[in-house]
Structures are given as structure tokens and as C-alpha cells.
Design brief:
This protein is an alpha/beta fold. The chain is built from six helices and twelve strands.
Length: 269
């Protein structure tokens, strides 16, 4: 079985005092194979905040794959940094690759940089990015769980979040589903949920899983700090996949299992 820890929006610089330690304990207990961090790693893209984030991720018990979020780019007030080297501090901490790919026997994770320095907070995906991801998905083997990770969401459950959805999603999502995507991971709105996604040409179905804010004070309403654990196995061509939502319980000072959702995965190849 493959186990993935999906965390998002830690916003280092605003982290709650005991929550990072509680998340580290959860990670050590669950022993994921990989950690997927879907952006807004810092609050203001400052070197010290990236240093704190890197010190935290270095303590996690598994390799970490990251993409930037809109908060990982300097503020628009810093015009020179935002326009000419927007990812300098991010890359100093987490490496030069903005769209890393993880390809193992049982797992394919394709990262998409949905941030655009020309936009304040909205995310966008280009035709070139859509085509690159679809091509890589078509190269996956039948036994792999096929994941796309980006910062911005593609499906909302609250009307107020419609404005936060990825620009270009109407083109990207059906093409990626038709190409074989099983699961799209994102964050940005600090609201955890799972929604089905549909293809167009194949009538195939996939899923998107949103994560809440992992360790930040910027919780949304009554939703506490929250992360996802994804478990997948393939036996004789049969796939089983589940997404567990783990919420931070302040009184117990630990992350606790809140819900578990089984995902049906469809295979034509």
C-alpha cells in the first residue's frame, strides 16, 4: 500500500504554537511514503518564513514534493521582486523545479504551478501546461495512482469560493480526466472536501481532494487545522483508494481522524 500525506497552506509566519509539533507526530505515527505540499507555504514569501518552513519539512519522515502558492510570491507592492524574480526565495528553500514530477512503480504525481505573478491571488493554467500534464498522464502505467497537485482549486462547495477557482479549469480538468488522472490535490481556500470530476470524451470520472490549512492561525470558520492521508493499493489490476481527513483537536493537542472517503478509480488501460 502507498500512503501519502497531503498538506496545504501552512502559511509559515502565522503558524499556531503547538500544531506543527502535532502534525510531525501524526506524520511519524502514520509513516507516509511521500508528503505532498500544495502551496502557500509561507505568509509573505520572506526568507525567514521559508527557512522556518524548510526546517519543518526537514523533520518529516518522508520525501516532500512541493508547489508554490500565491502567498509564496512577494507582494505586489514589491514590484521588482514580483516581476523579475518572484520565486527566488521559494527556490532557495525548496529547489529550482517549480513543477516537479514523482514517478514510482505505484505512483505518479505531476505538479502544476498555478500561480501567476501578474495576478494578485487567482490561479491560472496555460494551454502548454494542460498539454504537458495530459501527455505525462497518458504515459502512466496501469498500476499507478495518477495524481495532479496544484495550489488552486477546480471545484467549489461554497458559492463564495467560485471566484477562487482555477482559470482554465474548464479545459484542463476534462482533458486530464480523459488522459487518466485519478485525483487532483489542491488548497488555497482552507476548506477540506472531496468532489467528483468528469471527463468529456471518455465519460471517465476522477476526484479532487482539497486540504485545509495545516498549521496556520488562518483557519476558516469552525474548520480546524486539517490535513489529508491518502491510501492506495492495486492488486491484480483492482485499485482501492481512500482519503482520510485528519483534524487538529486542541484539547487533546493532536490530529484525529475526522472522516474517511473511499474513491472509485476507473481504468480503461
Amino acid at each position: 500500500m502507498t500512503c501519502l500525506l497531503h498538506i496545504s497552506d501552512p502559511h509559515f509566519g502565522t503558524e499556531q504554537n503547538s500544531v506543527p509539533d502535532a502534525l510531525l507526530r501524526l506524520a511519524r505515527q502514520q509513516a507516509p511514503d511521500h508528503v505532498l505540499l500544495s502551496g502557500d507555504i509561507t505568509q509573505r514569501a520572506r526568507p525567514g518564513q521559508f527557512a522556518a518552513a524548510k526546517a519543518f519539512t526537514d523533520q518529516l519522515p518522508a520525501p516532500v514534493l512541493t508547489v508554490p502558492g500565491n502567498h509564496d510570491i512577494p507582494l505586489i507592492l514589491n514590484v521588482v521582486a514580483r516581476l523579475f524574480y518572484p520565486y527566488r526565495n521559494y527556490q532557495a528553500a525548496f529547489g529550482k523545479e517549480l513543477e516537479p514530477v514523482l514517478d514510482t512503480e505505484h505512483l505518479l504525481v505531476i505538479s502544476v504551478n498555478s500561480t501567476k505573478p501578474s495576478r494578485h491571488k487567482n490561479g491560472e493554467v496555460s494551454a502548454e501546461q494542460i498539454a504537458r500534464v495530459a501527455k505525462r498522464l497518458r504515459q502512466a502505467n496501469p498500476g499507478q495512482l495518477r495524481v495532479v497537485m496544484q495550489h488552486h482549486p477546480v471545484s467549489a462547495i461554497e458559492a463564495s469560493d467560485q471566484a477562487n477557482l482555477l482559470i482554465g479549469r474548464a479545459q484542463a480538468v476534462p482533458e486530464w480526466i480523459d488522459a487518466g488522472m485519478d485525483l487532483l490535490l489542491a488548497g488555497h481556500i482552507h476548506l477540506p472536501y472531496i468532489r467528483p470530476l468528469s471527463g468529456q470524451e471518455t465519460q471517465r470520472t476522477g476526484w479532487t481532494a482539497q486540504a485545509g490549512t495545516a498549521v496556520s492561525q488562518r483557519v476558516r470558520g469552525s474548520i480546524p487545522n486539517s490535513v489529508n492521508l491518502i491510501r492506495h493499493e492495486c492488486h491484480e489490476g483492482r485499485h482501492q483508494c481512500s482519503v482520510e481527513r485528519w483534524d487538529y483537536a486542541e484539547q487533546e493537542d493532536e490530529f484525529q481522524l475526522f472522516s474517511e472517503t473511499d474513491l472509485a478509480l476507473y481504468r480503461s488501460r
